[in-house]
């Protein structure tokens, strides 16, 4: 019930629609149930003599009542089903917002397929609670509350005979409906459906046989008129669908509440990285970054991946991180935008602890190109402009030029309007990386982080891109991570990491003179290039 109470708050913005929809259900039910009454009266009246006037009058009355009832039926579905779609949209929006607030560790612990299932299948099942279940439940309640007294008024004994077969109809839908939802992708669904429908038809038909047999006897004895007998059978027809819907509603409720519980299990997970309650906006970022006595481990029980890091990057400086795979380069970079969380008092921007910055302000000042680029199924211009509220075409073209993407775009049939598939399916690895660089550059951030962002381009293209980027990086702080010496050789400071420690630091020429780890890496790459050229 606690899950349902949380869910109920999504109805608050739509109270008016909900009330109007319920009133439409009541009006449709009441008006619709007038039809059997008028038909019964017409039969008794026409038994005394058929005239054109009588036929016309009753036909127009029944036609008018059907039109009014149908109008309310349309309105109830339009309002309540429409409301359920709005509730679904709100749920989907909040679920997405909750997911993007989560840190990287959350997505390492939860499979993408499982999250997608909750965002699609479970959300669709929860929507059924908001629309169809409410509508069918109220339809059933209103019909039963109104029809049963009318049927009892005609004949108590005939009404009691309904309880022999009609409850079995609801039970059939409930029992077989549950089996369908366990096996909806199984071949046994065919067998279940083959039994369920004929059984329902048999039970409904049996009910009609009993009513006709006993009711016909009562009519023959004169204990009810032919019109009343006709009226009773029409009421029975109106009662059948609610009885079927009752079993359907039970299944909707079971599926919906189970899905809601799975959704709430995700909502209950508080983000590990979030703004503290007392956090306040800080002065605009200048770009100085400092790591003080930083030791970092992903989990307390694990060994540290970074040890005693002390590094100051002045505003406007370009610093490169090099080292073997797994040495901690990306981990160090991820601490700056708080994609992962460092211990308090170990990472600073402009001498202010990064936890004192609101996340939105901090990340708005950082342009980050990760190792794995993600592009959306949209046109190229929109992918470049992602994250920028208002980006004109001139700015997008400028960013593409900086990233070395212009020549490629000119070769595309639709230029910047070329559609790229999900995750950039239609682009090469190098084109995806350059699109991500253009995206980061377009934001004009004070801090630019390139995490192996040129690994998929050849050295010639890399050199051209770096030449353009130097102009962009001249007035902003840049952190470049790469396994290529050619990418980092012009950096103001190069730090060599090994097993989570900074083992060497200096300029390209200073590190070569040390004849250490950096020099070995440089010589290995020179040898690899010579072998590749030969």
Describe it for me?
- The chain is α/β, with parallel strands linked by helices and 534 residues long.
- It has three domains: 2-267, ABC transporter type 1, transmembrane domain (ABC transporter transmembrane region fold); 281-365 and 445-534, 3-Layer(aba) Sandwich (Rossmann fold); 374-444, P-loop containing nucleotide triphosphate hydrolases (Rossmann fold).
- The protein contains 20 helices and ten strands.
- The strands form two sheets. The chain has a six-stranded mixed beta sheet. Strands 2-1-4-5 form a four-stranded antiparallel beta sheet, with no helix packed on it.
- The longest helix is centred in the first third of the chain and has 49 residues, at 52-100.
- The mean pLDDT is 85.
Keywords:
alpha/beta; 3 domains; 6-stranded mixed beta sheet; 4-stranded antiparallel beta sheet; 534 residues; ABC transporter transmembrane region fold; Rossmann fold; 61% helix; 10% strand; elongated
